[in-house]
Design brief:
The protein has ten helices and no strands. The protein is an all-alpha fold. The radius of gyration is 20 Å and the shape is globular.
């Protein structure tokens, strides 16, 4: 297999469209960008497993869409994808409670930080908490087993003695209700706040 380690990003993107070169070109892009993307996702979420999943999903999507991509700069494209996935993760209410604590601690380290942004953090935390508390009992139980204990749908089904289909249905209901409680402005505000947590290189 040919080595393309010295190729530029645009050249690698072109190679992704060739069956003979696509796997090698993809491997180079993965090696080139996996670590910084993971670090960005981790500093935003403070959750290693979630950061890993987000970055893996981004690269899976890149491979699946390699023949139809219209991208001039792969770096900005991938970084934007991380922000989008992180925003969805927050909007789904899947952030751990420690996310908000660490965000408040970060803000508390500097009095110069905007008071409106601090209020926005508390507001979004309250919205997510209230949305979860407002779920029907079984729906809330299933959602928290997934979010807090990191159980798979099958593990939840086994613990509660219900079908996987029921778990999937209840998770869909939970995520829809949580998304409906968080408007676009709140989501953009919290993501901007989180981005301030990423160390500048």
């Amino acid at each position: 297999m040919a080595s393309y380690s010295d190729h530029t990003d645009p050249e690698l993107l072109q190679l992704l469209t060739r069956d003979d070169a696509a796997p090698a070109a993809f491997d180079i892009l993965y090696e080139r960008y996996w670590e910084p993307l993971y670090q960005s996702a981790f500093y935003l979420l403070r959750d290693r497993a979630a950061a890993m999943d987000i970055v893996q999903d981004i690269f899976i999507r890149l491979w699946q869409r390699r023949l139809e991509l219209k991208v001039e700069a792969v770096g900005p494209y991938l970084r934007a994808a991380v922000k989008f996935r992180v925003a969805n993760h927050i909007r789904d209410g899947r952030v751990r409670d420690s996310f908000f604590k660490e965000l408040r601690d970060f803000q508390g380290a500097g009095a110069e930080l905007n008071a409106d942004r601090q209020a926005a953090t508390r507001e979004l935390e309250a919205v997510i908490r209230e949305a979860i508390q407002g779920l029907p009992d079984r729906c809330r139980e299933i959602f928290l087993l997934s979010r807090d204990e990191r159980l798979s749908n099958q593990q939840i089904a086994d613990r509660l003695g219900i079908s996987v289909k029921t778990v999937e249905t209840q998770m869909t209901i939970a995520l829809r209700k949580i998304r409906n409680r968080i408007d676009t402005y709140q989501l953009c505000t919290i993501l901007l706040l989180a981005l301030e947590m990423v160390p500048k290189k």
